[in-house]
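Project standup — Tuesday

K.O.: blocked on the structure for the chain from last sprint. Re-posting the sequence here as requested.
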Amino acid sequence: MNLEKVLLITENDYLREAQDLDPTIKEIKEILLSGDRDNHKDIFINYDLPGNKIYKMTAFGRRLIVPKHYSDPYEVSDEEILDVTKIRQEASSRLEANRAKQDATFNKNRAAPERFAERVRMIERARDRTPENSPNTSKQTIQLPLERQC
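H.V.: unblocked you, prediction finished:
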């Protein structure tokens, strides 16, 4: 395959050409390029032309102007609405089933009050059987030397 020329279009070129296709944006661009500030003050206040692309000045900063043919509203069909409703119902039922399983597992693993009391008694008996608490063992006290303080 023999390619003699390769067309390279950058993002800036694409956006600039897209704006040039819209007649309203093209008119604003021509006014900004003409430099006629006296007759078109509002355009010079509200629009900016860095890099040969038109931006609208807003309270949030510069915003790129999207050509009209790129911003046509998307129409949603009834089938798509029904599909979304079905997905939401299915997700809701799955979440409810998962919540019920988690509650059942939690309740099964949770110690009943009588089991808790039995565990406390077992711990107390084990503590009473330790060598420290048995009367037959003698306790030895070890004193460590204190460090000299300067």
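K.O.: great, moving the ticket to review. The first helix runs from residue 11 to 21. Helices lie at 11-21, 23-34, 41-46, 78-109, 113-128.
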